[in-house]
Amino acid sequence: xxxxxxxxxxxxxxxxxxYEEFANKLNINRTTLWRYMKDQRQPDISFAVNVSTTFGxxxxxxxxxxxxxxxxxxxxxxxxxxxxxxxxxxEWTEDELLEIELxxxxxxxxxxxxxC
Length: 116
What we know:
Helix content is about 55%, strand content about 0%.
């Protein structure tokens, strides 16, 4: 199992939810959840963000990125240092910059899973 699927299982267990309840909280069907948890399907960024926001889980921890904090329940705000210098803050909202940053992290995780 991948770090992501292991972390999904950890969240489900800690919340005391069965698979159907967990899927319902995330607004997905049980089969889709099962495929994510068995590494038969890769989630898109919106699903990872949904898990993060629904359960207050740090996205870095959820994806198992190397710079993930020890505290999985900490959800840091996007800082100026973490944004790409090519993005002009006047053209992007804080939420859009956060989505861009999260998508970059997801792409890095996918690269890591592919062994690139």
